[in-house]
Specification:
- The chain is of the alpha+beta class.
- The protein folds into three domains: 14-217, Arp2/3 complex 21 kDa subunit ARPC3 (Orthogonal Bundle), CATH 1.10.1760; 242-442, Orthogonal Bundle (Hypothetical protein af1432); 470-595, GAF domain (Beta-Lactamase, 2-Layer Sandwich), CATH 3.30.450.
- The chain is 57% helix and 8% strand.
- The protein is built from 23 helices and eight strands.
- It has helices spanning 14-36, 43-57, 72-83, 85-103, 107-132, 143-173, 177-184, 190-209, 219-264, 268-284, 290-302, 312-315, 323-341, 350-354, 376-390, 402-412, 419-435, 470-479, 507-510, 520-528, 538-541, 547-550, 578-595, and strands at residues 60-62, 67-69, 484-490, 496-503, 514-516, 532-536, 553-562, 565-574.
- The strands form two sheets. A six-stranded antiparallel beta sheet has the order 5-4-3-8-7-6, with helices on both faces. Strands 1-2 form a two-stranded antiparallel sheet.
- β3 (484-490) and β4 form a beta hairpin.
- α6 (143-173) packs antiparallel against α8.
- The protein starts with 13 loop residues before the first helix and ends in a 14-residue tail after the last helix.
- 42% of the residues are buried.
Length: 609
Amino acid sequence: MTNVIGAVERRPLMWPYVWVVDAAGIAVLLYSIARVFTTALHPMAIVLALLATFSGLMVLRLRSISASFSLGDAFTLSALFLYGPEFGALTVALDTIAISFRLGGAPHRVIFNTAALSLAMWAAGEIAFGLFGLPLPALAPDIPTMVLSSVVGVLLFFLLDSGLVAGAVALEQGSSVVAVWREHFAGLWVSPAAGGYVGLLVALLTGTAGSLAVLTVLPLPVIVYHMFRTSLARSDDQLRHLEEMNRTYASTIEAFAAAVDAKDQVTHGHLRRVQIYALGVARELGLTDPALLRSLEAAALLHDVGKIGVPEHILNKPGKLTPAEFDEMKKHVTIGVEILSTVEFPFPVVPIVRHHHENWDGTGYPDGISGEDIPIGARILMVVDCFDALTSDRPYRAAMSRDEAFAILRERRGRMYDAAIVDLFFAIQDKLAAAAGLETAGDSRAPVVATTASGIRRRVEPVAQVSAGEPLARLLGDLLGGCLSVIYELEGNGSTLVARVARGPFAKEVIGHRLEIGRGVSGWACAHCTAVDDTDAVLDLGSVLPADSIAGLSCTSVPVKVGGRPAVIAVYGPRSEAAQRVGVVRSVSRYLQGAGAVAAPASPVAVAS
């Protein structure tokens, strides 16, 4: 028996349909009641009605999922075969009301279920017995005709019942009736088929040995009921255990992803947004395979898990990677695949992770595959991951605006990324941003993701202070006319660099500027004891100088020691002169270290948590 399950959303076209079915079903039920109670009822008819009601009250239900099992079809179809469409409609109504009472449900849903089933049973009986005669025992001993009549009756009942409910669901969801029927109802034929078989046996025995012969068949449904009750209880326990395991599994993935985020110096919000974007694009593409959607959902969180094996000084370097460093970075894909291959995922996560850096034109890594040979999940993931990375603050650059990120995606469209996916992402980006809760998504001039980490950039009141580094700054200023030279020294708390000396444009504004160890270009250079060349100056100075004054400037930062304490020499100048500036800064640093004026740090500085 088919019942409407779940909350019904008030759709304009659905309710008139429901009202028409309700009206037709109630009219059939009233007509059936009038016919049944104006004729003499056989005692066996009353027995069948009571058994149908009792079976509805004893319905079996799987608590872990929205599924139920009832033996009512055996008694309702027996009533149809023995006593005709009107009594069949009345009996199925009693069974439906009993099930609704047992399982609960909104009043409008109970009315619809009762009306639809009564209408389906009555119409099936009228058509079948209009063709072959009524009732079935009257056809005995013509067994072939009895079988044909029962088969037609059961088939019509199933199609009408499931079709009426599928129509309501399709109108609720805005889907095709045929698609809904195939997905949710096509496999439910077993219950009416089994009930029809029992009903046919009852009719055959009644036609040959009299109505009392039906008592020999009644133990059959009872035995089946108890068998199913035991089996369903075990299945329910197993499903509950599986549900608990799934929750644990999902929590483990979340924790693993959070650990990767912590090392990659990005917020967990990045992966969550990528997950929302990826699933949104997949659904807009019409992808409905549950295994594919689950794999994409997990891969969105785990695609960079291999970064655990990448050295931190490369992973969070605030500047362009060298070819050797980039080769090391690329290893995160194969490392991730090795890690995830040890997990027995029930869906194909590993192929998406393996190929999320492949390019549409075949120039990507690790396998160099191209076009549609790249799994669709990986093609979706690379587009949405790129967009969110571009519009988020990273150690090597500030967040871009949405328009700037779109321009980069558009330039890579058809070369690195699947053009169809890029175009679709552009079309639905506002919808995806709303789903991810990004209020700034509609402002094309602002980054989609605002900086939220405290301490990345802090503006403090300038404190004029001259230290022993003044001659060094003056020297750099003389050698690199027009550049801003800054000496950052470690503050007393050991977690912050402060600009003690500055020479050149905006020197007064920069004096006293603070950078946390590990943050910005100079903070990263100090923390990792590694020089950084030709990197966006906004990462160091974006909070203390106007954006137009540092546009086009790059930074060279070299870690040193001044007075035995960690420090950084930083020079900010036009990007076009970066090569010359790098050479000068490094030469001066080496000369001063050799003269004992400054010294290279012996070990990296611990990054404050």
